[in-house]
Design goal:
eight-stranded mixed sheet, globular, single chain
Length: 139
């Protein structure tokens, strides 16, 4: 079902400062930045050969990511796995009684479709991602 790790997501308070830090201190190449309205966040991606890094800044103090930062501080937020068909994957996960946060896909960055598995299931929040261009006709 999971085809690859797509990215590791890190919560940050200040996206501009964090981009500079990841570029300067780690030497990563900043790729793009986007506001994801459906999630209420602004994200910046650093593309690497294997696993991409996503920095996430909440857009409001009522956003779950903001609450996460307040409770746990900046740091790892979730691991995202690619799937070929998010609808089929969600049906399979429901059938296997996974603790899903989203039972249907939501809009993600770069036109992707995403859903989340509750962190109580594996000790970390897991996102499943179907990239744009890989959607079946009913999505």
């Amino acid at each position: 079902m999971f085809t690859n790790i797509d990215h590791m997501a890190i919560c940050v308070k200040n996206l501009n400062e964090s981009i500079k830090k990841y570029e300067g201190d780690l030497g990563l190449s900043y790729s793009y930045r986007e506001i994801v309205d459906d999630q209420g966040v602004e994200v910046a991606f650093f593309k690497t050969n294997k696993i991409n890094i996503e920095l996430i800044q909440p857009l409001s103090s009522t956003n779950p990511v903001h609450k996460y930062i307040e409770k746990k501080g900046e740091g790892l937020h979730h691991i995202a796995f690619q799937v070929d068909d998010i609808e089929k994957s969600l049906l399979e996960l429901k059938k296997r009684q996974f603790n899903l946060i989203h039972h249907s896909p939501r809009n993600g960055s770069e036109g992707s479709k995403v859903a989340f598995i509750h962190p109580k299931q594996f000790g970390v929040l897991i996102e499943i991602v179907q990239k744009r261009g890989e959607f079946n006709e009913q999505v």
